[in-house]
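Sequence in, structure out.
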Amino acid sequence: MTRPGKRLATMGSAAALVASALAPLQLAGATPAFAASYEWVALGDSYTAGVIPAAGDTFEYPRDGCERTDRSYPQAIDRDFGSLIELTNVSCGAATIEDITSSWQRPVGRDLPGSPDPESPFPFVPPQSDAVKSGTDVITVGAGGNTLGFADILFKCLQLGGSSGGAGTPCKDELAAGMPGRLAKVSTEYGQMLAKLHERAANAKILAVGYPTLIPQDTSKCSYNNQHQFLSITRGDLDWLRKDVLEPLNKAIEKSADAHSSTTFIDLYESSRNHSVCDTGKWAEGIFDSDNRMALVHPNARGHRNAADHVTSAILNTIAPN
C-alpha cells in the first residue's frame, strides 16, 4: 500500500528529481536533515544486480560472483543522490526469494552455458536480509523470477522450440500445468520475505520492484531463430510466456506488496511496454546482445535507467515532507 505523501508529478531524470525535491528542504548553507543518515539497502536478483555486460561493468574487487554492475539501477541512483543517501547493495545474480530471506547463496558469477566463470567457485554469501538493520530507512527488493524458475523455463522453451522448428506451443504444452503451483510458491515466499524485512526494520519503507516488459504484445515483432531476440522460442510460446508466466509473476508480487502496509509495488511493466526484447528501442537484451555477448534476456543500461527513475520517485516520496 502506498504511504500518504506528496506524489511527484513527473518522472524526468533522477538527478532533476533529486534537485527539485530537496530544494525546499534546505536552508542557505545548511545540510539536508537526512544527509549521511538516510540508509537504503538494495536486495534482489540479476534484474537488480545488472550481471550482463550491456548493464555495465562489474565494479567490486575481489569479485564475489554476484556480478553487480555499475549501470544497474541501484548504482545509477546512488550516483544521482551522491552523499545524500547511503546505499548498501547486496543484490546477487541468480538469487531466489529464499536467498534474500534466509538462505546462504553460492554466487555463480558469469557462469554461462559453455563458458564457465574462470574464478568460480565463489564463496557462499549470507542471506541478503542480513544487510537490513533496525535503522534502515528504505529497502528495495526485486525478486521472484528465480523462485518461479524462469531461467529453466526459458531454456526448456528454447529446446522445445528448436525441436518443433518454430511451430505450435511445445513449451506451453509441457509446462503450463505446473505454472499455478510455481506462482503460488512465489506468492507464499514473497509474503514471508516481506514479513522478515519488516521484522528486521520495522520503520523502513519497502519498495517491491516488479519486472519489466520482455515480450511484446504483438509477437509478430519477434523473428524465429533471431539470436538477438528469443532465438528458437516459438511465437505461440512467447505469447504464453507473456500472458501466463511473466504478467502473472508481476501480479503475484503486486498482490503480496499490497497485503503489507509498509510496502509499495513499483510497476516497471507499463513504462517498458514498447521497449521489449523485440522492439527497436529495446530496454532488455535477448539471448545475445547486439555485440553477440550472451545476455539471456536481461535489462540493459537503458532498462536500468528506467527502473532508476521509478525507484527514485518512490524513494523521494518517503523522504519529502507531506
